[in-house]
């Protein structure tokens, strides 16, 4: 089973990816994790990627595609995989199709976890974390017992820079620009399915399983 997971930041992709990987016994392949691994191991591709990241630039498609080809060629991907964070562009999607066609394979399903922007904004801007012990909170959905204080160690809880209103807006704008063409690309191939991501975690996963049951026999 070869799956691509799409969805905006804050949609719960990480949680659903873990569930899917465990249920269907396929590796969860995250672009970010692969970049970090290649960089820490100082592989030729990692060294090249680091040059761009250190300058605050996006890693070019060609470098990203080569890193992903290398990862998808590993033994644990023989029975399938779940891609998270790749492809991000139609160029990357076409390169992935070309690579898979070359080994007589194809993407079985693209899952788009759909969550309204307003809810994502609430989810992300309301997140708080304790810098001392790492405990996580949400001012609306999981508030601390004492406002502004960690339940575990009583330290002041803080908002991460990634979760400020301006940063969240920028991240959502970038996602829209990148992903809209991808959605059209996979829709035209007949492999795109939309998952309602607004419910409880287990409810969302049940929706995922309902979609995947036709290709998992």
Automatic annotation (TrEMBL):
Keywords: ATP-binding, Cytoplasm, Kinase, Metal-binding, Nucleotide biosynthesis, Nucleotide-binding, Transferase, Zinc. It is an enzyme of class 2 (transferase). Zn(2+) binds at residues 130, 133, 150, 153. The keyword Nucleus does not apply. Residues 127-162 form the Adenylate kinase active site lid domain. Residues 126-163 are annotated as: LID. Pathway: Purine metabolism; AMP biosynthesis via salvage pathway; AMP from ADP: step 1/1. The keyword Repressor does not apply. Residues 30-59 are annotated as: NMP. InterPro entries: Adenyl_kin_sub, Adenylat/UMP-CMP_kin, Adenylat_kinase_CS, Adenylate_kinase_lid-dom, P-loop_NTPase. It catalyses: AMP + ATP = 2 ADP. Belongs to the adenylate kinase family. Monomer. Catalyzes the reversible transfer of the terminal phosphate group between ATP and AMP. Plays an important role in cellular energy homeostasis and in adenine nucleotide metabolism. Consists of three domains, a large central CORE domain and two small peripheral domains, NMPbind and LID, which undergo movements during catalysis. The LID domain closes over the site of phosphoryl transfer upon ATP binding. Assembling and dissambling the active center during each catalytic cycle provides an effective means to prevent ATP hydrolysis. Some bacteria have evolved a zinc-coordinating structure that stabilizes the LID domain. HAMAP family: Adenylate_kinase_Adk. This is Adenylate kinase. The lineage of its organism: Bacteria, Bacillati, Bacillota, Clostridia, Eubacteriales.
């Amino acid at each position: 089973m070869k799956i691509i997971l799409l969805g905006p930041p804050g949609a719960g992709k990480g949680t659903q990816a873990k569930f899917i990987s465990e249920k269907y016994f396929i590796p969860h392949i995250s672009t970010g994790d692969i970049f970090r691994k290649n960089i820490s191991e100082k592989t030729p591709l990692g060294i090249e990627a680091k040059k761009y990241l250190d300058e605050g630039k996006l890693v070019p498609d060609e470098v990203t595609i080569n890193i992903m080809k290398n990862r998808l060629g590993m033994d644990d991907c023989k029975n399938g995989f779940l891609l998270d964070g790749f492809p991000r562009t139609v160029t990357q999607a076409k390169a992935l199709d070309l690579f898979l066609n070359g080994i007589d394979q194809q993407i079985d399903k693209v899952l788009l976890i759909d969550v309204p922007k307003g809810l994502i904004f609430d989810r992300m801007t309301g997140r708080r974390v304790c810098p001392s012990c790492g405990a996580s909170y949400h001012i609306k959905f999981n508030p601390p017992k004492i406002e502004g204080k960690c339940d575990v160690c009583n330290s002041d809880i803080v908002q991460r820079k990634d979760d400020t209103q301006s940063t969240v807006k920028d991240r959502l704008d970038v996602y829209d620009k990148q992903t809209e063409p991808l959605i059209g690309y996979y829709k035209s191939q007949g492999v795109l399915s939309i998952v309602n991501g607004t419910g409880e975690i287990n409810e969302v996963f049940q929706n995922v399983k309902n979609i995947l049951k036709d290709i998992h026999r």
